[in-house]
Amino acid sequence: MTPRIVIVGGSLGGLRAAEQLRVHGWSGELTVVGAEAHLPYNRPPLSKNVLVAPDASALSATELVNYPGVALRRRAHVEDVSWVTGTEVTGAVLADRVVHTADGRTLAYDGLVVATGLRPRRLPIDGFGSQRHVLRTLDDAIALREQLTTGASVVVVGGGFIGCEVAASARRAGCRVSVVEPFVAPMLRPLGSELARTLQTFHEEQGVVFELGRSVSALIGRPSDLETLGTVILDDGTELEADVLVEAVGSRPNVEWLDGNGLDLSDGVLCDNLMRVEGRGEVVAVGDVARFPNPRFDSTPRRVEHWCVPADTAQRAATTLLRGLSPADSGAEAPAPFAPLPAFWSDQFDVRIQGFGRTDHADRIEVLEGGFAPGWASDGVVVGYFRESTMTGVVIAGGTPAQRLRHKALLEAVG
Amino acid sequence: MKVTVDTGVCADHGQCIFSAPKVFQFDDDGRLVWEPAPDESLRASVEEAADVCPVQAIRVDD
User: Fold this and answer.
1) What is the CATH number of domain A4-119+252-329?
2) Pick from A218, A384, A387, B39: CA 20 to 30 A from residue A190's CA?
3) Which residues lie in coiled coils (chain B) (predicted)?
4) CB-based contact (8 Å) between A72 and chain B?
5) Alpha-carbon distance A398 to A247, whole Å?
6) What is the model's pTM?
7) A4-119+252-329 and A122-249: same fold?
8) How much is the ipTM here?
9) How many Cα atoms are found within 13 Å in the side-chain-facing hemisphere of A290?
10) How many domains does one find in chain B?
C-alpha cells in the first residue's frame, strides 16, 4: 500500500506543510483535512480590506478566496494532494496511527502533521448571538462586514492587534467605535507603554473611543426589543450603546481531538525543537498550535501566533517527519538548531507597525530613532526592546519600508 | 523561471528581499524592484520569497 501522510488542518500551516513535504521528496499520498469549507486562504486581510475595501464588499466567500491578498499561492508540487474540506477531525489514536472525522471516517496514516491552529475565545456571557462577532475565518469576516454599516455603534472587546485593526476598519466604514481593554493602553504587552499610548492617541484622533482598565460585565437588550443587543455594561457601570459586539479577546488552541494520547496539551501541543510531538518520529506539529522551544531566546517552549510561523515551522517539521519515516537516512547528522526570528506586523488606518524578535519581556525599552512627537507616523519611530542589556526585539511604527528592513537586518545580526 | 509581482497588491513588507536578495530589492525611492527572469539556481529562494509575502503578491511561473 502507498504510504500516507495525513495533515490535520487546512489553513496556511497545512498548505505549507504539504508543499514542504513534496519539496523534500515525499512521493507517497498526502491528505489534508480541514474543518473550514474553503481551501486555504490568507487571513491578514480579513480584519482590513475584506471588511472595508469597496471592491470586496459584494464578494461572496467563494469569490473572496481568490481576492488579491486573500488568495494563497499554492506551489505546483501540491496539485496531487487530496483536500478534504468542511470536515472536522474529532479524534486520534496515535498508537494505532489513525484519525477519526466528524462524519465517521477513519483515516490511517504513516505520518501525521498537526496543523489545527486556534479558535477565538469568547466572553463568558450568553445571548445576542447574531450581533456578536469574532474574527478568525473568512465566514467570520463576512458576517461582521454586513453589520459594519454607517452610524452603527460597534464595541470591540480587546485592544490587541486584531481588536485595534477591527476598530480602525469599523471607523473607516463610518461606525461609532469603542474599544474595551483591561490594560491601561491598547497593545501594551507587545509594544510597551510609550508606543502603546502614542498609538492610542493616534486612534483617538481618528475617532476611536477607548475604555481602558475595563471589562464587560453584562449585555442588555434594547428597551423596545429585549432580544436585540442595545447596551454593553462595563465593570464600573459605564453603559456603551452597541449594535455590534466584536470579541477580540485572544485564542485557544484546537487540540481536543488529540485527547487520550497522553500528550501535553496544556497550551497547544508540546513539541521539541525538531517540531516532533513528544519525541515521536511520525507526528509533527506546525503553526500556532505548536508549542516549541526557540534557542534564539531560551529553552522554554512557546506557542507563537505570528503569520510567518506556519511557513517557518512547516519547513522544519517536513524534514523532521521525512527523516522519521525513512529510518535508512537516520544516520545523517543532526540538523542545526531551529531558531526562527519572530516577525509580526499590523496595519491600522494608514500606519504600519512592524516588529521583529521578542518585545513582550523587555526590562528596558528605548527609542532608537525618531520620537513620539507629532509627525512620527510619516517620519517613523524605531523602538528597541532589551532584556539584560541585549536587544531582543525591535518595533518600527510608521516610516518607510527601507527603514523597517534595516532594523530587521540589525536584529538578525544581534540574534 | 518568470517572476511577476502584482504591484497593486504589494504592501512594501519587504519579506521577499530577505528570502531572495539577488532577485528583490527596494530602489532609492523605496519601491520594490525585481529581476523578472532569474537564473534557475535561485529557484528555492524565489519560491520562499513568494511563500513569505504577507499579501501573496508574488507569482512564480516556469
Assistant:
1) 3.50.50.60
2) A218
3) none
4) yes
5) 27
6) 0.95
7) yes
8) 0.93
9) 32
10) 1
